[in-house]
Structures
1.
Amino acid sequence: MSIKSEILEYITISTKKNLQKKNYGFENCTAPIIAKSLYQDRTNVSRILNELFREGKLIKKIGKPTIFISKETIHREFPFINIPDTLSKDSSFEKYIFYTHAESKSSFAQAFHIIGSSQDGSLFNAINRLMPIFFLPQNILKSIIIKGENGSGKKYIVQELFNRFIELGLATDSGQLIYVDYRKISNNLSSFINSVKQEDKIFIAIQLSDTNTAVEIKNVLRSFEIDFFSNNLQPIVCFLYPSADSNSELSQITPLYVEIPSFKSRPSIEKIDLSISFIKHEAERLQKTIKITKDFLETIITNSNNISLLQQNISYIVSRKFFESEQSKPDILLNKNTISEYIDIQENQRTLHIDDINDSFIIEPNKNITATTSITTPPEAATSQSQEIKTWNPSAIQQFAFYLENSTKEISYSNLEEGKMYNLLSKTFEKKFPICDIVSKNRIINIILSIIFNKSNQNSLFFSLPSSDSINSNVINIANSIEERASRMNIKIDSSQIFKIRNILSHSFSLFSNIQIPILLVSRNFLASELLKIIYNNHNKSNCIYTYNTFDSNKRNSLDSITRYIQSIDKGKGVLLIVDSSIRAELSNSLFMNTKTTTYILGFSSFPLVSECLLEIQKSSVNLLAITPGLVIKNSSIDKLTKGHDLNEYGNRATNEYLLSLNSYFNTLNIFEIHERLYKIEKNICESLELDLNNKLILNFIFFMDTVLFLKDINYDSNIFNQQKCTNEHFENIVQKHINKDEKIKKYSFSSGEIELLRQILYY
């Protein structure tokens, strides 16, 4: 075997082994490694590798050293991906892989789901006729013609086809699909095709009119063929033809020609499935349970001429019912009378009657659909009875986190043995317990001492905590050490006290032991930063966020104090700081001069920034430097978001990812209803105070109001508001006036300290 063949065989075997191990770095496929493995001269190996690359047998990734992988092996393992022959230094092989193995044609077809595409469905033949599009060579131009009446679902089929392209790695992102009207490109087709090439579009959907001819379609395809003649990757051109009349010329242009039946001609069961799927989408969007009756389905289907109109009618009716729903009617009921209230019913049209379905359906968000035989109770009673009372079901660690956060009372120890035990616990924690926050450490020590010396309230939340699921060796060692030292000091600790101490230690260990990169909030808006810490730490079951009040009168030389505090919470991987812009530069200089701790500082802006920082840390907690690039990108996108005003539109608020995420944090609240109430209150407040209502104010106001309402729902009496008063009487009066206009929000009864929180949010 020649040296060249040996090298190619080595690359082929190594590529296969790396793929099996999912090692996409291919570190052993370089000239130095191959030369040592085959006992060959490195220069000669490098020359042969480049020869094999020029012959089209290898894929090259530029770098130091250059990596070569087997092209044949890659395309055998991943037949659908489109990977270039040369990868840049910064390119990642993983981004070209979107599935772990090549799918069989049978499993592939089964995974393509559209209502009506199943066996005997009205779209079965059309969808199966389109299946070959995924198996055609990438270096030929592919054309599709989908013919059907307006509103028959042509664009939906295109979107589903493209989604499947992304899943298979034939497309990399949603931006590679483009919809365009033929009338807009017909006069300058060459310019349009050039833009398609430059923007790397691979799926072009062209909307035709019923006056367009087969000749015009052929001209478009001919222009694409000429411009993409030498390209290895050629696009899919899909024509959407709206005419219902048959046209034999179209089927002669491409074998991928399908006709979509009109909505009216589709079977009743498919019309029902389409209607229910649209209603389920609305239920999940609004997080509302929706009840629908059989006569509603019959009437809405009869009065919708196509799929597009059906979807619009359902969205409109559900949205109207949502805004008009009362507190006593948390669910939405859709019946025939509902339709007549909002859209014009064609009385002279024969209503569709469906015999083979249930009398009613209950559609709950994120749950299966429940069918019932009848609704025997009046709508109001049925709605009231089915109201889902949202309750908070915290885990033991979450209960303890709240308890610890509120344990601010210092216990005095008057005699010598109590003082000695305090010193003993402090030294033990310093050596054996992974707690870096001095405030929390002192709170835990005080709780344990109160157990030992029976100074605690036996009815407090702590004593109702369930025992921890896992007691690790550190906890056992510390508990044994406490018991042993207490015995030497003639302090008797019984078994119930030992159980409580171990439980406290175990919960504390869970809260603090998994912190890799702490986040420190430093802000004059101390109420907001404290609430951010409470909510995020409790939700994540980890004390990863710390706060530092820069306006605490007990702290001198504020910057020096912050520096020392940062050093105390550093776990060795760095500390991420989110601080007020007014002290950002000065603090950065102080840290540079006075500490070796790795830090990165972001400006204190909004709760989405804290969310994104936590996500970046969870994705990679190697060290702070490793996540800094991701933080820069996230900070930039959030900064752009908060400066906008688009959240003043209902549709943007209802779909904003950060506002939607609050559903998992505040599960006692129906956030879709509450957020609209809160937005209305904030809008009125800002108008009264002549404040510009931008996205930043909307996001923060809703988040912190959610926080206050949630804490009230779970009866959490936070100490942070106890000593606070609103510093502006005029502001307090305006806020109370607008809150009192909303009967539901008014019932929560806001304190002066809570209104001071809102003042800090709107003005800082």
2.
Amino acid sequence: MASPHDSTRAGKVFEHSILTTDVARALRSSLAMAGAWSLCLITGNPWAVIVAAPAAQNVAMLDVRGDYRARAAILLVLIAVLGCSAWAGAVAGNHLITAVLGIGVLAVLAGCWRYLSGDYGPNFALASGLFFLLAMSEPGDWWHAWNLMAAACLGGLGGMLVQLAGWFVRPQHAVRHAVAETWIAASDLVTAMRSVTDEGQPNPAQISEKEGVLRTTADRTLRVIATTMGKRSAALAAHLDDTCQLATRLATRTSALHTAMEALQSRAGFETVRPSFDSALRSLASAMASTALTVITHRQEQLMALDVRIRRAGDLLHVLDTRLETLDPQDDEVIQARQMLAMVAELLPTVQMTLRETVDHGTPQTGFALRLPDLSGISMRSLGAWVNPPAQFDWTLVRYTLRVAAVLMLAVAIHKWLHIPRGHWIAFTALVVLQPDYGATRQKMGQRLFGTLAGSTVGSLLLWLKMPVAAFILCAAIMAFCFAYFVRRRYGLAVFFVTLMIVLMTESMMPVHLDFTLERLLATLAGGLLSLTAALLLWPKWERSQAPQYVAAALRANRSYLETVVETFGKGERFTGDAVLAKRAVERANSQAVASLQRLISEPSRQRGDVEHIATLTTYNQRLTRAITVLGQHLNHRIGNALDIPASYVTPITDMMDVMAEGLESGAPTATASRQTTPPPKNLSLDEAVVYSQLGTVATEIDAIALAMGKNGTTT
């Protein structure tokens, strides 16, 4: 008999397989690759394995979103790209000049893919480069080129069939999984707020990272809903839009509660509150994950499980409120924390009601579906929704594209001029390793070298085993599964598995000995060193000149956020509309500032400048955002009760933020003296006093930023 612990573990595995795409992607990758390989051997075309199997794998493992017709269009475009790349590589590979020019053109096209689609462009770019180089390594006449193109396209169609089979086995409305991803991102953010993990270990601080992930996921989901759902599905579209925004609303209120609780941590007696707070956060995160599962499956049994988790979360929040009351019920910060807690608790019944409607909107599917859910009619808008170039042209991408083109052309020239065996791996390693910034390039190189060395060594040992072809295919399928599963989790481990897969695949074509391992390892090392050199010398854009600009933009976004919240207080409205839009804008700006800081840290020490200064300003700016969010949450219990905050109280604060942003942009010193000297109005009610107290906290956070700038100065 299975123990309760085993049942719990099995339940978690089931939820993980439903809520994440890792397992499904790995299964598709494994089945498609093994199927294409087997068919090539059965039909007597072993030469086609080298392009057909990778094509099937690349198409099958692509995570596509949106309307089913749009998904099919994306996959067909990818198949066409793979086929054309294989044809071009086979034709261009006959001569050095055509090979060099061909890879240069392909690099420019890869940059176009990255520009046109942030979601799928990088996959298209890497896959097209791989197939060009694979075909270039085996050049031939026109007939050979057409054969390789046909093999790549047929393999890709096989991978597409694997994708289609999954759609019919577990059909779902195209945007349900996207909405569920938003709830998962919200759950991950709440989990990051906990002080300890489930195992009792200190929880690493990842709140900033998870906030950025939630903002990106929610924006993508709302865009999918807007472009996918047609007029016939207007009611369902509105419901799913509300469900997505409910996730961000609950996460925002929980974040405000966490910020308010931070102010109490130094109080005597808080240690009696901390365990209750951690339990409440854990229960909320669990309820959010259960919500995501219900959105996808829309089954009554999942709804019942969600009801239990929400009731438990509500009970634990009530316990936490009781603990907070023992601190000092008249203290402004305690009152604020209890108000934030109450706003989280009052949203839980809304989650239950919304998810009941979700279950009503969908009929659970069992068995094999005869048709896919029809969400909308065919329209260019839905089919082309995956093409979403950025609003502003990015010159960094232009420099990166030119850098990639130069490196790939040089790598192919070296390979062809010196006739290096398997030298095409120099170019492919450079294509994979070379990133827009130096730090990411260095990190990719280290991971790829480790994975290639370990994978090639183990693969060479496997070659001494005299296994039948079926055993090779089975082992390669397992490697394909592991590669697709870990590619977004641990890149170095994924490279290890894909190297093993390539070694086994090559063994089916020709005898492979120790020279294969050495040649691929040396080619990988050469490609990595070439990439690092290019990142250092070819049109670098060091982050130290950009980081202050990102912090300044985030500071200006915070200024707009604060002004919008104050204006909303004067209207007596909820935290909706313009306030939510301002919050989204500042979250995006903060995410860009954090990403800039991470790039800065990864750059050479002589190019970093005062990285500690930028890190301090970025962190302080995030704390300012959270303080303004706490202030904004007070709007939710003041509906119809306008509070006019005098301009003389707010204007000095916002003016100071403008001065600091200008100082960051110009590098000029910034005054550190506080400009907020106006006292709060007299005869305030208890609730109004709490609002002004939080405004004082906002002003304090701004003073901290100004003080940090005054001590260190700006760096450009």
